[in-house]
Amino acid sequence: MKNLHSALPNQGWKVMKYGKDSSRNRNLEIMAVHVKTHTQLEATWLKGLDDHTPLLEITLHSRCFTEQA
User: Fold this and answer.
1) Which of 24-28, 29-33, 44-48, 53-57 has the highest mean pLDDT?
2) pTM of the entire predicted model
3) Whose CB has fewer CB within 10 Å in the chain, the N or C terminal residue?
4) Among 55, 59, 60, residue whose Cα is nearest residue 25
5) H/E/C letters for each residue in the chain?
6) Where do the domains of the chain lie?
7) Rounded to whole angstroms, how far apart are CA atoms 59 and 51?
8) 66 pLDDT exceeds 70?
9) Are 27 and 46 in contact (CB under 8 A)?
10) Nearest to residue 33, comparing CAs of 3, 53, 63, 68?
11) How much is the pLDDT for 17?
12) How confident is the model at residue 13, as a pLDDT?
């Protein structure tokens, strides 16, 4: 997550949030917006419960549009 957080600005992303979420596990999350496309990124490092393997969850939200001539 540190690497992702530091690499995003170099790829045109503005990091809006980097820190622990409000869940009881206090999972680490990154929320970012791509400056040109306004695509939104949510990345969460989900801590494993009961000794399960941690997971990385990534969600992208992209605007869809059509150009009319």
Assistant:
1) 29-33
2) 0.79
3) C
4) 55
5) CHHHHHHHHHHCEEEEEEEECCCCCCCEEEEEEECCCCCEEEEEEECCCCCCCCEEEEEEECCCCCCCC
6) 2-61
7) 24
8) no
9) yes
10) 63
11) 97
12) 97
